[in-house]
Amino acid sequence: MGGDFEGQYGIVTGAGRGLGAATARMMAERGATVLLVDIDADSVEATASGLRSEGLRTHAIAMDLADESQYPALHEAISSRFGGRLDVLVNNAGGWRYSTAREITIDEWEWMFRTNVTSMFLATRAVMDIMVGQRSGRIVNVASGAAHRPRAIMPHYGAAKASVVSLTKSFAEELAPSQILVNAVSPGPIATETLRARGNLIEERAKSIPLGRVAEPEDLAEVILFLASTRNRYIVGQTIIANGVCS
What we know:
- The protein is of the alpha/beta class.
- The protein has eight helices and seven strands; from the N terminus they run E-H-E-H-E-H-E-H-E-H-E-H-H-H-E.
- Strands 3-2-1-4-5-6-7 form a seven-stranded parallel beta sheet, with helices on both faces.
- Strand 1 (9-13), helix 1 (18-29) and strand 2 form a beta-alpha-beta unit.
């Protein structure tokens, strides 16, 4: 099966379900060998196994991306599964909790930054020298619309995702001379399993979107995969806001 990623090797984090799983599937369908990474071992193994049963080249590894001591396992997987090469990293792993500023505990604050920022920072730093040695690569970070506007019910999430936007620019500045393009995508609401489980929240969110619906995971995966492909030749350090809203 040919496509934009034929012969390439990619990593997608937070790939056990939702946007990460959709991105991994579409990258594999377009020719890549993809390593799915997630903290949930059962989920990521099941997703990768399902893709392999369809003839797609996928592997899985369960690890906590915010724990630097676990990265030798990732390096071993890149060596054994990819022959030491890496063309694409999609930093999708993250999470959120609803709390106001008055309600946020320091533990919750630290969890939010660890889950959304530390994981992305460590994953990028762990693989960037591989790409530098190749003088090629694409890194795409998943931020959030919450990074760009006030979020009184989860200000710590907005602050963490704003940090992802900032780090995207910093990594882009450092890595562009090695022909590595680093960018980000800020989604609005996505119809993932998590959002569907929250009752009528999808319908409520859709009311504020001119298109009349929230995004499907594949809608955002298309944006991610363009930035991650060699078709993207000149976009560097940018965050694409893909939320269905005309603003």
